[in-house]
Design a protein that fits this description.
heterotrimer; A alpha/beta; B mainly alpha; C mainly alpha; A: alpha/beta; 9 helices; about 30% helix; B: 5 helices; about 60% helix
């Protein structure tokens, strides 16, 4: 099956600032992909490269098997909701539906109207007076009514209250259940993504830290706690993501495919948030140039 | 029709929670042969979870022989797990409720009640074995 | 896409048409009276509705600029400023097509609107133009005829291009105004006179032209501003003798002592509105000077009015197309 998004050595520079460095990913289709990372990590840059709003400085990217270059048919296969859900403040809800119909050859007006009705939006209300949650829902409606194969959502729930957030994700999951679209959504909050995503990409300081199916990632990462042994060297097939030592105890987050047989360690599973935090911690520790920890040697 | 709920803090994965809830419902007689499980869309719309999670749970239940999909119609229960013991459920439930009231009056909190129950239950199993 | 461009342009278009209707009503009410004044007492025409005349001229001068600022500058800049470009450029239309259609819809509508103002004003001011016979002059050439179409097209594409480059509406508006004014000025005074080589005619010196004496480093010299020529465009005039020489400083002092020496010496402007004393001295001076000298006037004849209208409109249309091309090149650069 064609990958939803495939990148090879993708780099994006703005002047001297590197927004995305050496990004190589193969995101499968048919999944709900969570793109997680702190603000400024490069998530929006990656998504804008995927939708064709910006062009790479180096390296390549293909979306649904083709370059995201500007061609009407390629644009029609990918639905996009940008950060802060841009809409035309002076145009009403139904005007926006017309906008979609006039500008997209493949447009499902019935689906759009149904969704607007279900959401309880007033068709005549100007988009500028809608609440944050309603704007997000309208933007999602516009994105899905053109029947894309892939939906790209840039921090769609970041500024929404918990109820609006829940309603948005409910609607999004219903869309996935109905239409089988692939979804890539970015967030700087992991809790949103845990129920909804089945594939994860962690982006910190312009680099991909880890990427994979969530189930598999959770199965191969473990938290090990045990007595502190200064002479301890981890086996070659363990990848230590994070290590913290206190007086008499060491705790490690380790990536390892098989079982951990050393009886000295107590093995626990991680949840998604803990996993992401360990990778973010590692990225900071590895000397990302934009982050300095006061008083800590790198 | 059963309605699922998710406890995000229970440490049990969502798909397992769904499987368990279906099994429980079957045991309690809330689900019988021929009943329809909620559609994938209905479940994800209520719980905001990935549809694949629901599909996985339904697949596992299908493997266990408890449910079967009928193309175009939905997923339906194929067995009735509760037996005649259903009749005994009601008075047992009432007795349990009375016991719970007593336990609370005695000052036990939720965790103590659960611990007491687990402990007694295990002890009774040992007794049975012995 | 065309329907979308119209929908987005709707409120501006309504305001523009409303303004046009208001102006049309005012002119329709006053027009017949102006016409009757012309028929009965033509010399009264220039003073009838004088304030309104000034207002109409001012309006016609600024209409293309207003169009450029308010229709052109926000065309792209507003979408870039509010972020809606991330919505519209990710639908199923390419940026190039989006921009082309928006420019075409707004550009042509604006041209029609500007043309509408100019047509109505031309109908109303017809008596005035017949009396004044100055339609070719720098002040009135740009507000009648077909040039307003060209100006409007240019102003809109200038605004859109500047808005695309600056990405902010307000700076774009300011720059569009400056750019439009500068271009119009440059074309009116440096390009239009040279569309075709001007003709020359010789005339006797008369008080109809304005004269003045200037103290240059090489001495005194006499300059003339060209006399009015009905419906033509006088450009410049010079005073020369049969051999083409200008009067020398000493000659002038000899021929016009009253004006070149004594308390009134220095810059003395002649012309029809000076005092009787100076007028008398002027007439003596002219009588003396015209013994040897005559005036050579460089001008564009009346029959070149429409060709010049066409040249200038074409020039501005070409400028508009060039700007449109530039903006199309700019919009495709996928930088941010």
């Amino acid at each position: 099956m064609t990958a939803a998004i495939e990148t090879a050595g993708l780099i994006k520079r703005y002047g001297r600032r590197i927004a995305l460095s050496d990004c190589t990913l193969s995101i499968p289709a048919g999944k709900v992909v969570g793109l997680v990372g702190p603000n400024g990590a490069g998530k929006t840059t990656l998504l804008h490269l995927a939708i064709g709003l910006i062009a790479p400085s180096a390296g390549g990217i293909t979306v649904l098997g083709r370059s995201p270059a500007e061609r009407p048919d390629q644009l029609g296969r990918v639905g996009f909701v940008a950060q802060n859900t841009p809409l035309y403040a002076g145009m009403s809800v139904v005007d926006h539906l017309h906008f979609g119909a006039w500008i997209n050859p493949r447009w499902d007006q019935t689906l759009a109207e149904q969704r607007i009705g279900q959401l309880g939006l007033n068709p005549r209300q100007k988009a500028g007076t809608l609440s944050g949650g309603q704007r997000a829902q309208l933007a999602l409606t516009l994105a899905i009514a053109k029947r894309p194969e892939l939906l790209i959502l840039d921090e769609p729930v970041a500024s929404l209250d918990p109820l609006a957030r829940r309603e948005f994700l409910q609607g999004l999951m219903a869309i996935v259940a109905d239409h089988g679209v692939s979804v890539v959504l970015s967030s700087h909050l992991v809790a949103d993504l845990e129920r909804v995503c089945d594939y994860l990409v962690v982006l910190v300081a312009s680099r991909v830290q880890v990427a994979g199916e969530i189930e598999e990632l959770l199965a191969i990462h473990h938290r090990l706690s045990g007595p502190r042994r200064d002479s301890f060297r981890p086996p070659a097939d363990w990848e230590v993501i994070e290590q913290s030592d206190v007086e008499r105890q060491s705790t490690l987050v380790v990536r390892h495919k098989g079982p951990v047989l050393d009886p000295a360690w107590m093995v626990e599973e991680l949840n998604l948030e803990e996993l992401v935090l360990s990778y973010m911690g590692r990225a900071v520790g590895n000397g990302s140039t934009s982050l300095k920890l006061a008083g800590v040697q790198r | 029709m059963i309605e699922f709920h998710l406890d995000s803090r229970s440490g049990v994965s969502p798909y397992q929670q769904i499987v368990r809830q279906v099994r429980h419902a079957l045991r309690l007689g809330l689900l019988r042969e021929g009943d329809q499980l909620p559609t994938v869309k209905e479940v994800v719309e209520r719980l905001a979870i990935n549809p694949n999670t629901v599909l996985k749970a339904y697949k596992e239940l299908e493997h266990a022989g408890l449910v079967a999909p009928r193309p175009g119609l939905g997923t339906f229960v194929t067995v009735t797990l509760s037996d005649g013991s259903l009749a005994a459920h009601r008075p047992l439930r009432q007795e349990l409720l009375r016991w719970l009231v007593k336990a609370r009056r005695a000052g036990l909190d939720d965790e103590s009640i659960e611990a007491l129950f687990q402990d007694t239950f295990r002890a009774s199993l040992d007794q049975d074995i012995a | 896409m065309i329907r979308l461009a119209w929908r987005q342009f709707r409120s501006e278009a309504i305001i523009g048409v409303a303004a046009l209707i208001v102006v049309a009503v005012v002119l329709a009410i006053t027009g017949p009276h102006l016409m009757s004044v012309y028929r009965m007492a033509p010399d009264q025409v220039t003073s009838t509705y004088h304030t309104l005349q000034v207002a109409v001229v001012a309006l016609l001068v600024i209409v293309p600029a207003i169009i450029g600022i308010f229709f052109g500058a926000p065309l792209v800049a507003r979408e870039l400023e509010t972020g809606t470009f991330r919505l519209v450029w990710t639908q199923s239309v390419t940026r190039l097509r989006w921009l082309t259609i928006k420019l075409a819809v707004v550009g042509f509508s604006s041209a029609l609107l500007a043309g509408g103002f100019s047509l109505i004003a031309a109908w109303w001011a017809n008596p005035i133009n017949i009396v004044n016979q100055n339609r070719f002059s720098s002040a009135t050439f740009g507000i009648l005829g077909i040039v307003p179409f060209g100006y409007a097209l240019f102003a809109v594409t200038l605004g859109a291009t500047v808005g695309l480059i600056f990405r902010r509406t307000l700076p774009a508006m300011a720059t569009t105004l400056v750019g439009y004014v500068a271009t119009r000025y440059a074309v009116t005074y440096w390009v239009r006179p040279h569309f075709q080589a001007p003709l020359r005619m010789s005339a006797r010196l008369s008080t109809a032209s304005g004269f003045s004496f200037i103290n240059t480093p090489t001495g005194l010299s006499m300059t003339a501003s060209p006399p009015p020529i009905p419906n033509a465009w006088p450009l410049s005039a010079s005073i020369v003798d049969k051999a083409g020489h200008t009067p020398t400083s000493s000659y002038l002092q000899h021929a016009c002592p009253a004006l070149t020496t004594g308390p009134g010496a220095g810059r003395v402007a002649g012309g029809p509105h000076t005092t009787p004393v100076i007028q008398g001295s002027m007439q003596t001076c002219i009588a003396n000077v015209s013994a040897k000298f005559h005036e050579v006037v460089s001008y564009q004849p009346a029959n070149r009015y429409w060709p010049f209208q066409i040249y200038e409109t074409a020039l501005f249309v070409v400028l508009a197309l060039a700007l449109a091309g530039l903006s199309m090149w700019c919009v495709r650069r996928r930088v941010t």
